Amino acid sequence: SAAIIGLVLSSVSLVARLWARYLIVKKLRLEDWFMMAGLLLSYATVGLMFWGLTTGLGEVFTSLSNDKQRTFLLKIQPPTMFLIKTSIILFNARIFVTRKFRIVSWVVWTTTLLWMIGTVVGTTLQCSPPSFFWDKRQAGSCAKHTVVTIGLTSAVVSCVGDIAIFVMPIPILARLKIDRRTRAGLICLFALGFFVVLTSFVRWITLVGVPEDGYTSGSVQIAVWTYFEMSIGITCGNLPFLAPLMG
Length: 247
Description:
Blueprint: H1 2-24, H2 30-55, H3 68-95, H4 99-125, E1 127-128, E2 141-142, H5 146-167, H6 169-174, H7 180-191, H8 194-208, H9 219-238
Antiparallel strand pairs: 1-2
Helix pairs in contact: 1-2, 1-9, 2-3, 2-9, 3-4, 3-5, 3-9, 4-5, 5-8, 8-9
């Protein structure tokens, strides 16, 4: 049910965003294309998750003949979140034009890019050969505790990045010379991004409970929270664009 709610929220909010763009500027910006790409990748994730629920995603390794779908999940989450975060950073840098803000924005973006590359490469190379990660019938080995370590490190770095992205605009909004009610509304709107931080934190807690000898036994919960993090990120990233539709 959480995945379905996330699917509806992210899809509807993006359609509303694009409609608002059409009403105001009659064209799409770069950040809109990044968010659309992020939504498409999130569809692949939720499709994979529903497929996995019908093919044994929650089973332990020994009862699975092939777990390629779970490996795909681990590799698609960082690029999806990178696209979503890039969209938000581009939008913030467009409307908050101070030099200091833009410098910090690009530092955060570069850190996000390195996080994505590091997570994908680490996931791919943690086993020798890499295919041993999902197929234990062949000869090979994986670095001890690496599966969970990479996931936890990735979750923590991602969470810190989310906090930075959503905190950065708040001091500027607090100094705007507008009426107090409007300023408070804008701050609350951007602060909704902390729901993304919350889902990242819950996913981190889920990863902590993953058993070493049967990583797929926790994959269902990990998949759900991974997708929910994506969908909430997309929804929160779209909210600032919906004001024109609300009058």
